[in-house]
Each structure stands twice: as C-alpha cells, then as structure tokens.
C-alpha cells in the first residue's frame, strides 16, 4: 500500500467516524468537466491584493486571474489561462498588509503588471467574477478601461450561501472549508482565485447545482439603485437595518436591488414614510462599479 493510499483510507475512516472532519489541500484543476456539447462562454475569476481598503486610492500589489470555459447552467470546463502578477506600488506596504498577504516591498520591487496583456486576456470574456466585486472592480477600473465595459458578478452578495448551504459566513476561506471541504493558502491572488473556482464548481442546495449557477441567475436579473429620497430622519435605523447605505455626497440612503424585488421594496418604503423614492435603472455593465454608487 502506497503512502498516498494509506492517507486516503485514514482520512475516510476519520470522516466516517462522525467525530472528525478531514480537509484536503486544494489541488488546482485545469479541467473541471469533460468538453460540453453546449455552447460555452468565458468567465474570468479575478482577485487583487492591495495596499489598503480605500478603493479610490489603494494600489494593487498583486493581481491573479483564471479564464475558464463555462456554460449557461453554471458548469465549468477547461481552464484557458491562469496568471499572477506582482506590482510595485508608489507608496509603502504596511505591516498589516504584509501580515495578511505575506508580501513585502522587497517581494514586489521592480515588478509591473503588463496591462496590455491583461487587456488582451479580459477582452475575450463575457463575465468577470470576484468574491468581493464591490471592492475589486472599482480598483481595477482605475488601472484599465477593459474592466469598465464588462458584466461583473459577486460571489459574496449574489449567492445566498446561508439559505443554499446553511453556512452562516460568507468568508471565502470558511466557505471552502465548510462547502468544499478543502483548504488553501489564502490571501494571495491566484491562490484565492483557484480556490474560488473550486468553490463555484461545488454542487449546492437541494437541487445540487453548481454554486456558479445561482450566481448566474442573479447576474441575469435587471438591477436598480433605490434612493430613499425624502426619508424622515427617524427612519435611518430602519433603513440601515434594511440594507441601505448612506450616500454622503447626495445625503440620501440608497440600496442596490434586483428589479424583481422593486415592488416589495417600494411597499416597504411607503410603510416607512418614504412614498416617493428615486429609482435609478442600472445597465448590466454597471453592477459593483462606482457608477452604481
């Protein structure tokens, strides 16, 4: 018996005992499923590591992405490319960023992201996905216009993990543990991307559909920005609890939602003394960009 076979049997015994859960180290895939007879499209799963959390000023220090074939049902197929680039920022890399990513200034010094190459790659895709697209997209749009015209999806906000998997956290590393039963080296760009691809390929819910299929359903929904124009001051806590965010520039509470939810939301606003909200219809390419804020 080989050592690998012995370890596999040991892991199976531990799992079957009910007293242990054994996690497997992620082995990134180059092929998820055999070639499909259906028409395939291209998805770019992407991640950035940056010098901070302010999307208006932070600098990218690492960019990772995979471009993969997928079908309209959310099944992934062949990985067409997997790339990772380091990038020297103009500013410093803080100790906190180094603690999270492991990257120091010496690691990235002299490195530059080849944006022309990135643009060529991204031009061919129909959809970009990040685990927090509301962060990654605004940052990437500052570096290359190719990201401005793409449709984006977010695996944090557009998959109802709690309902579909009964996992209460949307943290990617935790979801990989609980849903995919694997672990990986988190907070490096390509590692995070490859882990997210594996997570999106997992069958979830009673329907046992790949997680990506539920994200695609959300991406296909028309979206609007609802602004609670004229909302009384004493409704601010209710609005916050409802998921509204404060737009300081326009001094209004606002929320992004699918058009299918609009009727219910307007009724709720009327009940909370806000009968005349402002509805801003968004283009498919606006989700998670600064244009949706």
List keywords for this structure.
single chain, 2 domains, alpha/beta, Nucleotidyltransferase, domain 5, 23% strand, 11 helices
Detailed description of the structure:
The chain has 293 residues and is of the alpha/beta class. The protein has 2 domains: 200 residues, 2-Layer Sandwich (Nucleotidyltransferase, domain 5); 70 residues. It is 33% helix and 23% strand. The chain is built from 11 helices and 13 strands. It has a 5-stranded mixed β-sheet, with helices on both faces. The protein has a 4-stranded antiparallel β-sheet with strand order 11-12-10-13. It is globular, with a radius of gyration of 21 Å. The termini are far apart. 29% of the residues are buried.
What's the gist of this structure?
With 293 residues, the protein is α/β, with parallel strands linked by helices. The chain has helices at residues 3-17, 95-101, 105-108, 115-123, 133-143, 161-165, 172-180, 189-200, 211-220, 236-241, 262-271; strands at 24-25, 41-50, 60-70, 76-86, 127-130, 151-154, 182-183, 203-204, 209-210, 223-227, 245-247, 252-258, 278-281.
């Amino acid at each position: 018996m080989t050592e690998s076979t012995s370890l596999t049997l040991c892991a199976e015994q531990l799992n079957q005992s009910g007293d242990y859960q054994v996690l497997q180290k992620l082995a990134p895939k180059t092929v998820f499923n055999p070639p499909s007879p259906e028409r395939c499209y291209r998805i770019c799963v992407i991640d950035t590591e940056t010098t901070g959390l302010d999307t208006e000023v932070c600098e990218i220090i690492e960019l990772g992405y995979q471009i993969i074939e997928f079908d309209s049902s959310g099944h992934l197929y062949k990985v067409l490319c997997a790339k990772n680039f380091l990038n020297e920022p103009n500013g410093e890399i803080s100790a906190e960023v180094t603690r999270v990513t492991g990257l120091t200034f010496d690691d990235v010094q002299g490195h530059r992201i080849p944006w022309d190459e990135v643009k060529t790659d991204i031009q061919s895709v129909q959809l970009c996905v990040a685990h927090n697209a509301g962060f990654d997209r605004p940052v990437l749009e500052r570096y290359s216009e190719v990201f401005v015209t793409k449709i984006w999806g977010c695996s944090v906000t557009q998959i109802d993990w709690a309902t579909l998997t009964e996992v209460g956290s949307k943290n990617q590393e935790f979801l990989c543990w609980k849903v995919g039963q694997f672990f990986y080296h988190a907070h490096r760009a390509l590692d995070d991307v490859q882990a997210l691809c594996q997570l999106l390929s997992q069958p979830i819910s009673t329907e046992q559909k790949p997680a990506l299929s539920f994200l695609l359903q959300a991406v296909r929904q028309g979206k609007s920005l609802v602004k609670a124009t004229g909302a009384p001051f004493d409704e601010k806590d209710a609005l916050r609890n409802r998921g509204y965010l404060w737009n300081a520039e326009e001094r209004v509470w606002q929320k992004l939602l699918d058009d299918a939810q609009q009727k219910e939301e307007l009724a709720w606003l009327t009940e909370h003394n806000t009968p005349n909200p402002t509805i801003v219809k968004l283009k498919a390419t606006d989700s998670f960009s600064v244009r949706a804020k």
